[in-house]
Write a structure and sequence with these properties.
It contains 16 helices and 22 strands. By secondary structure, the protein is α/β, with parallel strands linked by helices. Strands 14-15-16-13-12-18-19 form a 7-stranded mixed β-sheet. It has a 6-stranded mixed β-sheet with strand order 9-8-7-10-11-21, with helices on both faces. Helix 2 packs antiparallel against helix 4, helix 2 packs antiparallel against helix 5 and helix 3 crosses helix 4. The longest helix has 19 residues. The termini are far apart. Nicotinamide-adenine-dinucleotide binds next to helix 7 and helix 8.
Length: 487
């Protein structure tokens, strides 16, 4: 195994490290210390990456599916072999605790192997009357993969995996807040793929719009916020690029009256505050039945109190800081709005602003787990995604009412229903407008099941057969062996 060096980071274009004239850097969100320099790509750097991907396309798209799969699986094995390096860098760029950084890297191999167990093959859909029609799935061409900062390793790997399996070539763009692991993944990929198949460029806020408007890119697979997703789609429309959008969520968790309160409260605490609430499918609105509300809220507070906040390198930390200053200010803005709009803050709040200064951690973007009880349904914390460790809890009485309120959002990514009465739980679950609905769990995703959002949460899916189809042009090939005269 070749050791990767996690001190120097460059663009990767046409199989080679490609340094840029200018560099920038992000900061470690726990300490605000600068991370190493990363490229500040120009339009010309992007052009070079797109040309390399274009030149590699014919060879790669004509490579047999099984050989492409083989290269991908060898690549993910090498990622696992380098898991310590990737996880260490992930803590420094993202802020998440080491144990979760390790599990993010560790999950890659199994997840991608699951995806690679699916194969899109030619299918004869008609064979009659001397005519055969074959349905074929062909690569779209050069893809752009744009990812956010919350799960930089796994989200980048998912884009690369879809692209290379289906015979596309790709230019990857990590988030400017977390460019390090993404660039290093693509550097490692060069040992397994021909030059130009997997490229990476990193830069500032200009780079994403350059990609979505680039005439040489055929498809954009974007994961990020709904606000940016709208801009991506608008920009892609001008060149009629194909787009997949994996966007934000406002997932409801509906708690039935018969749950085992401490157990379910601990799960809700986990899925509200894991990754400091920075998960697209975190539980973001808790609807608890009024008959158990008091007891449930106390149990939720008790469970959340056990979650240690701190630098991801410290032992036993469950929640790191939020990833960046913009995100910190955004979450604090929700705290301010709660003061104006109502709701009882039963735990956390903006106290962290002072608490962490006193502890001498003033530079980190730390926020305590925050629970707000009974805000109005119309309030901002019930409507928008804070993408931080703050969650509202409201009560419900009637089944129709809770379904209506759970669906009263322009998001539709995930949802969960928790209860022992499985018939009732499933009846409610089936009425929820979201791409993934869980009963007695949340977040968990299998690569063979499509994952995506309804409404403002996205367009298209990743994972499953449908996820791979989303990277293909479909062709109907009509074959008639004999030609008869028609006159
Ligand atoms: P973001 O939209 O700010 O940025 C995402 C990526 O888009 C970054 O790489 C960024 O540089 C790039 N970008 C920014 N402006 C762009 C533009 N105009 N054109 C093209 N690219 C542009 O999102 P974020 O703050 O990094 O991530 C958090 C969001 O991502 C949350 O809303 C979260 O719910 C969502 N998310 C969704 C999923 C999913 O699978 N549905 C998964 C993870 C995160």
């Amino acid at each position: 195994m070749m050791e990767l060096n996690f001190n120097t980071f460059t663009n990767i274009i046409n199989g080679k490290k490609s340094p840029t004239a200018k560099t920038r850097h992000s900061v470690n969100p726990s300490t605000k210390e600068p991370n190493p320099p990363v490229p500040l790509s120009t339009k010309e750097d992007l052009d070079a990456a797109v040309s390399a991907a274009r030149n590699a396309l014919t060879g790669w798209s004509e490579t047999a599916w099984d050989d492409r799969k083989d290269a991908l699986l060898k690549f993910v094995k090498a990622v696992t072999e380098n898991k310590d390096g990737f996880a260490g860098m992930l803590v420094k760029e993202q802020g998440k605790p080491m144990m979760f950084a390790m599990s993010e890297v560790a999950m890659v191999e199994g997840f991608i192997a699951g995806l690679a167990s699916i194969k899109l093959e030619d299918e004869v859909v008609v064979d009659e009357g001397g005519r055969k029609v074959i349905k074929r799935y062909l690569p779209m061409g050069v893809a752009g993969g744009i990812v956010p900062w919350n799960f930089p390793v796994v989200l980048m790997m998912i884009k690369i995996a879809h692209a290379v399996l289906t015979g596309n070539t790709i230019v990857c763009k990590p988030s400017p807040f977390t460019p390090y692991t993404g660039l290093k993944l693509v550097e490692l990929a060069q040992q397994f793929f021909p030059p130009g198949v997997v490229n990476a460029v990193s830069g500032d806020d200009n780079l994403g719009p350059w990609m979505t408007s680039h005439p040489g890119i055929d498809k954009i697979s974007f994961t990020g916020s709904s606000a940016t997703g709208r801009k991506v789609m608008e920009s892609c429309s001008r060149t009629l690029k194909r787009v997949t959008l994996e966007l934000g969520g406002k997932d409801p968790a509906i708690i039935l009256p018969d749950v085992d309160i401490p157990v379910v409260a601990s799960q809700i605490a986990f899925y509200s505050f894991f990754n400091s609430g920075q998960i697209c499918v975190a539980t973001k609105r808790i609807f608890v039945h009024s008959s158990i509300a008091k007891e449930f809220v106390s149990a939720l507070v008790e469970a959340s109190k056990t979650l240690k906040v701190g630098d991801g390198m410290e032992q036993g930390v469950f929640m790191g800081p939020v990833n960046n200053e913009m995100q910190y200010d955004k979450v604090m803005g929700f705290m301010d709005d709660i003061k104006r709009e109502g709701g009882e803050v039963v735990m956390g709040g903006d106290i962290g602003r002072f608490k962490y200064k006193e502890k001498g951690q003033k530079s980190g973007f730390f926020i305590d787990p925050t629970i707000v009880v009974n805000p109005k349904d119309s309030s901002r914390i019930m409507k928008e995604e804070p993408f931080g460790p703050i969650v509202p809890v409201v009560t419900w009485d009637d089944e129709d009412e809770v379904v209506r309120r759970a669906n009263d959002t322009d998001m539709g990514l995930g949802a969960s229903v928790w209860g022992k009465d499985l018939e009732k739980a499933e009846r409610i679950a089936r009425r929820i407008e979201a791409g993934s609905v869980w009963i007695n769990e949340h977040v968990f995703s299998l690569p063979v099941a499509p994952f995506g959002g309804w409404k403002g949460s996205g367009l298209g899916v990743e994972g499953g057969r449908e996820g791979l189809v989303g990277w293909c042009n479909v062709q109907s090939l009509y074959v008639r062996p004999e030609v008869k005269s028609v006159l």
